[in-house]
Amino acid sequence: MDKEPIIGEKYRGVSLEQALSDLLDPDPKVRCLSLRFLQNRRHETILPHVVKAAKDNDGSVRSLAIQIISKFKDSSLIPLLREALEDKDECVVMQALRGLHHIGHTGLLEFEKSLKSSSPFVRRRAVTYLACNQIHEAIPIILDLLNDTDKGVRKVALWATVSLSQDIAMPHLIRALDDSHEVVRDMALRYLRRIVGPVKLEANHKILTLEREIREWKMWWQRKATVGKDNRRN
């Protein structure tokens, strides 16, 4: 059968039988189109075929299969999603993380492995889901990522820390004011303004420049830390 018309028409009018047959096609584009057609079918009908596609030799096919599996929200598929976390393709790993999140799986171990991934996109996704699932045990690991080489990971880690504990986040927000990237510094400022309120200037400083505001925040934190030490001594 000529595949090009099917690709062009996006599987319009194709039978279920033909779509299942096309999962064996040598062209990964055809296999992906077949999966897209099948994803709108009943769970019971397509599940065995999609599970098999999750082991495909092409990363784009595996990624799409895991994406479809994630939509089922079936806890019996957790072992398959765990296995996909070990995939060499970062898109597959991110879909697997998404699937575990959608199912409501809050096991720290799976996400922790992904936090050590060589891909910054995987690390970001893992941090995001840890915070969304309110896994407080992950805070120490997330704090380590505040020193990540990728600015996007540092930004997400800062957001996650605030989401999980504002008290723990406070000294790290102050430290982030000196981050090497503007996007992280700006986020730290926004959170400080939101959590604590606007900076109160001394009488002799009428204009609040960005540089001055950062200095004021650091002085505020030093005063707060000093008061805390004095209270502990007493």
Structure explained in plain terms:
The structure is a single chain. Helix content is 68%, strand content 0%. With 234 residues, it is mostly helical. It has a domain at 108-226: Leucine-rich Repeat Variant, CATH 1.25.10. The longest helix is centred in the last third of the chain and has 24 residues, at 210-233.
Sketch the major β-sheet: none
The radius of gyration is 24 Å
What name does CATH use for the topology of the domain at 108-226? Answer: Leucine-rich Repeat Variant
Q: Provide the helix percentage.
A: 55-70%
CATH superfamily of the domain at 108-226: Leucine-rich Repeat Variant
**Global outline:** elongated
Under the CATH scheme, which class of the domain at 108-226?
A: Mainly Alpha
Count of helical regions: 14
In short:
The chain is an all-alpha fold. It has 14 helices and no strands.
Topology:
Layout (H helix, E strand, L loop, with lengths): L3 H6 L6 H7 L5 H11 L4 H11 L5 H14 L5 H7 L5 H14 L4 H8 L4 H13 L6 H6 L6 H14 L1 H11 L5 H14 L14 H24 L1
Helix pairs in contact: 2-3, 3-5, 4-5, 5-7, 6-7, 7-9, 8-9, 9-11, 11-12, 11-13, 12-13
Keywords:
single chain; about 230 residues; Leucine-rich Repeat Variant; about 0% strand
